[in-house]
Amino acid sequence: MIETTAAPFPTVRVRPWLGRLAIAGSLIATFMALVWAPTDAVQGDVYRIIYVHVPLAWLAYLAFFVVFLASLGWLWTKRPWFDALAVASAEVGVLFTGMFIVAGSIWAKPTWGVWWTWDPRLVTTAVMFMMYVGYLLLRSLSTDFSRRATRAAVLGVIAVIDIPIVHLSVLWMNSLHQLPTVLRAGGSPALDAAMGMTLGICVVAFTLVYFAFLAERMSIELDRQRRMFEARA
Amino acid sequence: MTARCARHELNALDRALLIAARELAAERRHPDGLVAALTFTGLLVLMESLAFGPGQARQPGVASALFWIAILFAATLVASRSFDRELEDDAIDAVLVVDGGREALYAGKLVAIAIVLAIVALAAAVLSLVLLDLDVALPGHLVLIGALGILALPPVIVLTTLLALRVRARVALVPILSFPILTPQLVACTQGAAAALTGDASAALGWAGIVAAFALVYGVLGLTIVPAAIE
Question: Which of B76, B170, B181, B220 to mutate to test binding with chain A, by most A CBs within 10 Å of its CB?
C-alpha cells in the first residue's frame, strides 16, 4: 500500500535559502582556492584542482549513501517522499561523480602524464558511475510508479556496497593514486593548515550546492508525483 | 507445487530445492538455455583468443580473464532464459502465491543456475585448456576458484534479472545492472585463476577468500531483500 501523504518530516522552507547560501559559499570557496591558498611546493598551481576534486568525491559518496537511506525508507514505509529523495540524490550524485572523474583526469594529465590510467581508484569510481547510470536507466524503463520505486530501491540498497570499495581500493590494491590525505586512519590530515582550511570551506560550499540541487530536484519530483496521484484519483 | 505445499509443510530449503528441481527438469526437457550458453561461451573463447592472438591468449592473466568474461555472459544468458520460461503463461505467479515463494524462487534459481553454469564452465575450461595448451600448476586451487566463482555470480545476476523482470529492454538492462556490481568478483576470479595457473598458492587462496566473501554477502543480501524486490 503506497502512503500518499506529505513528507514524513516537518516541511521547512529552506529551498530559497539553500540556493543563496550555496552561491555565497561557492564565491568564498573560489576566492580561497584560487587566491588565498598557498601554491604547492612540488606540484605548483596544478594541485588547486583538489579543491574541486576532493569535495566532488565526498559528494559522490554522500549522494549515493543518501540514495541508500532513501531506498530503505521507501522499502520500509512506501512513502513517495523517499522515492523522490532517492531519484534526486541519484541524479545529483551521477552529475557530481562524472565531474569528479573529469576533474581527476584534468589533474592526472600534467601530474601523471596521462588522462586516464588503469588504477584501482579510477576504475572503481568509473564502475560506481556506471552503476548509478544503470540505476537511473532502470527507473526510466519502468512505467508503473510503485514497481519502479521498489526496483530502484532494491538496487539502491545493493549498490551502496561499492562506496567502501571505491574509497578503500587505494589501500587494498597497488595504486598510483595517493592514499587518503584528510580522512586517514590513526593520523591527522597530511596537509598544510591553510590548504586544509581552504579544502574544508570548499567541502562545505560544495555540500551546500548538493543540498540546493537536491531540494530543487526533489521539488520537481514531488510535483510530478502529486500530478500523477491527482490523475489517478 | 502449490498442491504439494498444501499437503505437506515444506521448510524453506525443501521449497528452494523443489524450485531448483523444477528448473533443472525444464532445462533437461528443453535444454535451450544450456545449449545457447555452451555455444555462446565456446564462440566467445574462440573469438577472443583469435582476436588476442595465440601468444597473448596463452598468458595466464589473459586466459583467465577470457574464461571468466565468457562465464559472466553465459550466466546472464542462462538466467535470462530461465526467467523467460517463468514469464511464459505467467508460471511465476503460481510460485509467488506460495508462502515463502519469493525466497524459494530466488534460492531455487541460484541452485539451478549454478548447476547449469558449472556444466558450461567445465566445457569452457576444457576448451580453453586444450585450445590454448595451458599448463595448470595448481589444479586443486583452480577447481576451488572455479567452484567459488560459479557460486558468486548467480546471486547478483538472479537479483538483477528479477529487478528487470517485465521491464522494457530487459536483455540489455540485466548486464548493465549486474556487471558493475560483479566487477570485484570478476577481478578476484580472474586473479585467482591466474595465480592457480602460475603456481602461486597463497595468492590463489587469498583471491578465493575474496570470491567466497562476495558470494556470501550477496547471497544473504539477496535472500533478505528479494521479498521486497518482487511485486
Answer: B181
Section B141-150 average pLDDT: 95
Cβ-based contacts of B220 with chain A (< 8 Å): none
Above 70 in pLDDT, residue A2?
no
Where do the structural domains in chain B lie, given as residue ranges?
9-229
Cα separation, A184 vs A174, in Å, equals: 17
Interface test with A, best of B96, B176, B185 (most A CBs within 10 A): B176
Q: Within a domain: residue A3?
A: no
The whole-number pLDDT of residue A182 equals 62
CATH code for position A165: 1.20.120
Inter-chain residue contact A134 with B228, CB threshold 8 Å? no
Q: Which of residues 161-180 of B touch A (CB under 8 A)?
A: 163-164, 167-169, 173, 176-177, 180
Is residue A7 assigned to a domain?
A: no
Looking at the structure of chain A, the number of domains it has is 1
pLDDT at residue A4 in the model: 60
CB atoms within 10 A of CB B12: 12
User: What was the pLDDT predicted at A118?
Assistant: 81
Triad A126, A129, A132: Cα angle to 5°: 150
Kindly determine whether residue B180 and residue A151, on different chains, have CB atoms separated by under 8 Å.
no
pTM of the model: 0.84
Tell me which residue range forms the domain holding A223: 15-232
Residue A21 has a pLDDT of 92
ipTM above 0.90, yes or no: no
Would you place residue A112 in the very low, low, confident or very high pLDDT band (cuts 50, 70, 90)? confident
A88, A60, A104: which is closest to A207 by C-alpha? A60
The alpha carbon dihedral of A12, A15, A20, A26 has a sign of positive
Cβ separation A138–B167 shorter than 8 A: yes
The answer to whether the CB of A152 falls within 8 A of the CB of B179 is no
